[in-house]
Every structure is written in C-alpha cells, then in structure tokens.
Amino acid sequence: MSIRKAVIPAAGFGTRFLPFSKSVPKELIPLVDRPVIQYVLEEAVEAGIEDILIVLSSEKEAVIRHFNPVPELEKRLAERGKTDVLNEILALNRLGRIHYVYQQQLNGLGDAVLQADAFCGDEPFAVLLGDTVMDSFEERCVTRQLADVFNKYGSSVVALEEVAPEKVSSYGIAAGEFCEKDVLAISGMVEKPSPENAPSRLAFAARYIFTPQIFDELRRTPRGKDNELQLTDAMCRLLDGAGMYGCRIAGKRYDLGSKMGFLKGTVEFGLRRSEFKDAFADFLRETVKKLDEEKSV
Q1: Alpha carbon distance 70, 25 (integer Å)
Q2: What is the pLDDT of residue 271?
Q3: Considering only CA atoms, which of 232, 223, 255, 238 is closest in space to residue 106?
Q4: How far is CA 243 from CA 74, 186, 210, 214, 234, in A?
Q5: Triad 61, 65, 68: Cα angle to 5°
Q6: N or C: which end of the chain has fewer CB within 10 A?
Q7: What is the pLDDT of residue 297?
Q8: What confidence tier does 21 reach under pLDDT thresholds 50, 70, 90?
C-alpha cells in the first residue's frame, strides 16, 4: 500500500529556542528564506504524499497563516513584476492538501501522533518531525527511502542515522541485525543509553512510517517521563507485536530546533545558494580570520 498521508507534529513549546520561540513557532525559524516546516512539507510531497496533517497548539496559528493564500500580496507582487517571488508564494498552494488539528494539552510526542487517529484511519502513514530538515544524498528524499522499505516489508519503518559514540546518549538507539544493506531488522531500542551500554550507534532520525496499529499501542501505553505519552514506549510495544525495520538513511539530518543546529544549517544551506555563496564564503573566512587574530592579541 502506498503512503498517502503524513503527520507533522508541531505543537511543542520549542523550549530549546527560547526566548525567540515564546512568540514565534520554532517550525517557522528560517533556513535562509524558507521556514523549516516548509522544507518538511516539500519532502512529504516529494515522497508522493497527498494529505498532510499538521498537529498544532493554539499558540501556533502563524503556521496556518504561512500556508494560507494571501490574494492581496499575490496581486501586489504581480503588479510590480516580482514574478520570481510570486512563483515561490504560489508554490505554497501546491504542497498537497494540508489539514490541521489541535493538541489540546501538550502531553508528549506520542499524544501528538495519537491526534491523527481519525485522519489516518486504517492506512499506514508517515510522521515527519516539524523542526527537522533532511538533506538526501540521492534522488530519493528520506521519506521516500523509508516508504520503499515499507513497501517491501510491510512493517513500520524508522529512519536511522549513524552518530558518533559520544552522542548516543542524546538519542533513541536501535538494536538489531541488517537483513540487507541499510535495512535493519530491529530487535530492540534503548532511549539515550550511555556509550558503553549502547547496542549500536544507529539513532532514530526524526522520520517514521507506521502501520495503523501504532494507535492501539499508543492508547495502551502508560504515561512515561514527565507524565507524557512517549512515542518510543509505544514503538517498543509495536515492535513486540508486529515487528519493525530501520532504514539507515542516505542523507543528513538538520535539527533546526536547537541553536547549534540552526547555526550549522544556516551556514551549509547558505553556501549552496548560487546567488551569494561566494560572497558568503568570503565573509565566513574573513570573520574566522578576524576572530583568530583577536584571540591571539
């Protein structure tokens, strides 16, 4: 069965980006000239997904406004001959069919996914975290890579990214054996293990495809850390009952919900833009040189 639906959880407070995220949703943090969540929707559409549900809190209606048409703005851009910018604005109207639901209480990522039960029905679906951008190393986007694994094995699939040993304690880590190149038959998962106790260096990487059975497991799963419904706990239950695979992605994850991730992403994506990459690169070299000179004084 093809993956036609996606869920983007975007209701959290974004505490890692305070005080900025107090008034602006972290999903609207710009990566050069597009908000992070727009990159996420573009990935979903590239993967062939037709309907996208964004899970919001009431304070994040700015996300809805970003994707809604603004006829007056479009008219003004057309009248002034700013066709390049107008085409970028109009492209927002082609990002699939976007739906919204409110997470009334912020009870964790698992609870956010559970809000999509009626939307997904009995279909498998993708989950794409709204503050994380994926850069694919091949023609297939990362969500498409997961969908291909799902279509072959028919079980839930999680994106995996190999991380440095000293970073495993920051992620959920998968255990298992590779059944083919880059496809892991998952046998277990450990949340934020110490490096010496980690079963691997394969970290969950912000993209998932679930069978609808995940909703039953979420409803059965007791609250975990911080009295929140943890998606990882429900995934463990799903693993025991139906099995699960991991796809070691051909790509790179950018966590734009963290300050360092934002800085790194801005530099890398900025250097890819042909219109100013040379000038930007020169600026960065000059800035580093100046800082080194000041440090040596």
Answers
A1: 20
A2: 95
A3: 223
A4: 49, 7, 11, 11, 12
A5: 135
A6: C
A7: 67
A8: confident
- Radius of gyration of the chain, Cα coordinates, nearest whole angstrom: 20
pTM: 0.92
Q: Which residues, in sequence order, are CB contacts of 211 under 8 Å at separation 6+?
A: 124, 155, 156, 238, 242
Q: How far is CA 243 from the centre of its chain?
A: 23
Residue 126: both structure tokens together: 């993708």
CA distance 56 to 42: 18
Q: Which two tokens stand for residue 173?
A: 């880590």
Burial environment of residue 62 by CB neighbours within 10 A (0 to 12, 13 to 18, 19 or more): middle
Q: To which residue do tokens 């498409």 refer?
A: 144
H/E element holding 128? strand 125-128
Partnered with residue 177 across adjacent β-strands are 185
